[in-house]
Design goal:
Blueprint lengths: L1 H24 L6 H4 L18 H6 L2 H13 L12 H12 L3 H12 L14 E2 L2 E2 L2 E5 L3 E2 L6 E3 L4 E4 L7 E3 L2 E8 L5 E4 L4 E2 L1
Helix pairs in contact: 1-4
Amino acid sequence: MQIKEGIISRSADLFYAFRFLKLLTTPWEKMTAYEQGVIDANGKVIKKPSERSNEDKSSYTVFHKLVFNVKRLLGKLPFGKTKLASYAAALFLIKEHTGMSEDRIRKTLEDIFDEPLDTTISENTWYESDIGLSQGVYVLRTDVVSPITGDTIAKENSKVVVESTTPPVTRFLGHNIYEVLHAKTKQKIYITNGDISR
């Protein structure tokens, strides 16, 4: 019985992974939710839940909301011939939120943008020691966005605090990812050393 349940579970995981990637790579204008007027051409919801028909509700479920938020976030990222810059941290959070592998995220991004992913990051390695990011107050070089909503959660030129030398929480796309504290909101955010300056 457990073997059968395991097969069903893996099949469901594969189905949702495929569905996630298919929705992620579908243009907004070809989404059923767009055709029914639930979202606009940028994926933003324009029809209130109380105004939606049953057909509308099936075109915009919790699953769609997750995928659309990730898709909107990706729409803000520069790829291809430009630099990945500070987005390794946001992509790491997408990986954590979706369970997608680093290779799958790279391949999906290359498919979306139809060109190779340039992972060059302008790094400030003098902020790092052998054990991590040095203690201090840093200035963000770019906005930091939420991987869940796509909204800005920390503005460019705002300050982040590293209270003591901080080791990276992980590496993603070949770059260290650090958890730091936003000075104003006291919210924990993820950055690379390319996101900050003194």
